[in-house]
């Protein structure tokens, strides 16, 4: 039987401390019409913002990410090429094209489909004017292919990344990670999708093919010329929601079950996602693939970098129905940031898919031998150039902050010591398990699966467990609100 949850927020019930009341920061208040003015703010150079209200909602079709084909396949290895370059993309209906930074000129970025045990080799060429680094988020890879913040590809240069895919199925994505540049690069488009599958996933009767859809969410701010406006820590002014690169699109569906893999690829916006009629969907997975069993929910919260894998059964709606995917969090006017996209039920279709009561067997949690503590913080006293810290220190690529013995299992207690600012925590190299949130065991819902990113609101503490095996080397952990990591909220760990 599918476990039923009427409200799901990062896997914890509202009583577990993740309710909306008392958060004390506009970035996580429920979306309200008067939270932030919808338009007219001045941008650099004196040009006014484009009013989000001037963009027609549900007027453009949601595109699907283009699947990238390998240029060569040899044995169990597939070879790809990508070039990072700036292009002019048609984003806003009826407006001039927008300059974006892309992989292979695609906005949204391309999708690589991979399989566990079969290598993927990607040659990345930097056609931009700034250094870049390509990180495959959630991947278990050697240091040389991790795309660390200082492992840079200079303008005009190339680097070959090898992804062994020696891990179970997962909903991965790739993005820029060049330190101090990653925030603006990803905001302007440098991200893509990477779906890793295996026999465990393929043997299940879940919706597949055209009924398995990847959806990337991000926030944006435009000037009146239709160009992206970037400023550090600017979330209250990013009031246009882009879905697969389009503002508030519609997506035509059949009256049957769909698997929707939702990626929060935004710089800083949290989403509380729900269907406009309040009906349930089935949560089946997250960052590291499928959960052990499905859960029914009406809301799922995603912090930047997190993924949710859900099944929505549109057969309960008559053909002709229109169902909006809504967002319950601000900042910003509810008429803008409170809407994400619309599903239009346009036809009937045969449906032989189902969601089994058991999805997978998660690996056992071995005994932990090391306990560590990490405090996340940033300046929130109004100074003009705030800095981010982990354990009171900003990122220094020359410094190793944490030494880890190869093969060890550790428990990390991570606390957001800020009074206002939300954070989250992302670890490279390994997936982890969330043991506790605010002292309460995590026993059901979204956070019971394999994770690589976890939300930590102001004053919250999470306890994580990970086993460090597979590769030796130096990797990073950091807040995955890109603006915060660019401010220095990042540290190095070395596995040896």
Automatic annotation (TrEMBL):
Its EC number is 1.16.3.4. Residues 94-198, 233-316, 384-495 form the Plastocyanin-like domain. SUPFAM superfamilies: Cupredoxins. It holds the Pfam family Cu-oxidase_2. One of its GO terms (molecular function) is oxidoreductase activity. It catalyses: 4 Cu(+) + O2 + 4 H(+) = 4 Cu(2+) + 2 H2O. InterPro entries: Cu-oxidase-like_N, Cu-oxidase_2nd, Cu-oxidase_C, Cu-oxidase_fam, Cu_oxidase_Cu_BS, Cupredoxin, TAT_signal. It is an enzyme of class 1 (oxidoreductase). Keywords: Metal-binding, Oxidoreductase. PANTHER family: BILIRUBIN OXIDASE (PTHR48267:SF1), CUPREDOXIN SUPERFAMILY PROTEIN (PTHR48267). Belongs to the multicopper oxidase family. Monomer. This is Multicopper oxidase CueO. It comes from Streptomyces curacoi. The lineage of its organism: Bacteria, Bacillati, Actinomycetota, Actinomycetes, Kitasatosporales.
């Amino acid at each position: 039987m599918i476990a039923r949850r009427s409200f799901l927020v990062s896997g914890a019930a509202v009583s577990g401390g993740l309710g909306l009341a008392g958060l004390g920061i506009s970035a996580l208040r429920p979306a309200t019409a008067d939270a932030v003015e919808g338009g007219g703010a001045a941008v650099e150079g004196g040009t006014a913002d484009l009013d989000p209200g001037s963009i027609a909602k549900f007027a453009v079709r949601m595109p699907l990410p283009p699947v990238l084909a390998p240029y060569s396949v040899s044995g169990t290895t597939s070879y790809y090429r990508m070039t990072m370059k700036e292009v002019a993309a048609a984003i806003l209906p009826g407006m001039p094209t927008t300059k974006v930074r892309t992989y292979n000129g695609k906005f949204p970025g391309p999708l690589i489909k991979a399989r566990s045990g079969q290598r993927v080799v990607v040659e990345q060429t930097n056609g931009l004017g700034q250094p870049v680094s390509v990180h495959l988020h959630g991947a278990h890879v050697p240091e040389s292919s991790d795309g660390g913040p200082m492992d840079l590809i200079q303008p005009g240069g190339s680097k070959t990344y090898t992804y062994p895919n020696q891990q179970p199925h997962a909903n991965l994505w790739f993005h820029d990670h060049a330190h101090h540049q990653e925030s603006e690069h990803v905001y302007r488009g440098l991200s893509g999708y990477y779906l890793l599958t295996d026999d465990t996933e393929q043997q299940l009767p879940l919706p597949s093919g055209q009924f398995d859809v990847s959806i990337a969410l991000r926030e944006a701010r435009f000037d009146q010329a239709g160009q992206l406006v970037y400023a550090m820590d600017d979330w209250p002014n990013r009031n246009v929601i882009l879905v697969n690169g389009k503002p508030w699109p519609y997506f035509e569906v059949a009256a049957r079950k769909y698997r929707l893999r939702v990626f929060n690829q935004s710089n800083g916006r949290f989403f509380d996602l729900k269907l406009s009629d309040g009906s349930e969907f089935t949560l089946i997975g997250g960052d590291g693939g499928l959960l052990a069993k499905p859960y029914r929910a009406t809301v799922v919260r995603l912090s930047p970098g997190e993924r949710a894998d859900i099944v929505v059964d549109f057969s309960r709606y008559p053909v002709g129905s229109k169902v909006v995917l809504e967002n319950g969090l601000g900042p910003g006017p509810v008429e803008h940031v409170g809407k994400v996209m619309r599903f239009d039920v346009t036809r009937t279709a045969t449906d032989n898919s189902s969601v089994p009561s058991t999805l997978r067997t998660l690996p056992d949690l071995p005994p932990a031998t090391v306990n560590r503590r990490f405090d996340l913080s940033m300046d929130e006293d109004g100074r003009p150039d705030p800095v981010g810290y982990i354990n009171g220190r900003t990122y220094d690529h020359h410094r190793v902050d944490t030494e880890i013995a190869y093969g060890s299992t550790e428990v990390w207690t991570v606390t957001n010591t800020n009074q206002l600012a939300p954070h989250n925590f992302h670890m490279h190299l390994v997936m982890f398990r969330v043991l506790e949130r605010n002292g309460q065991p995590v026993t059901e819902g979204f956070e019971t699966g394999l994770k690589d990113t976890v939300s930590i609101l102001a004053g919250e503490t999470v306890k994580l467990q990970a086993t460090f095996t597979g590769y030796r080397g130096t990797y990073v952990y950091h807040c995955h609100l890109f603006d915060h990591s660019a401010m220095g909220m990042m540290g190095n760990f070395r596995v040896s």
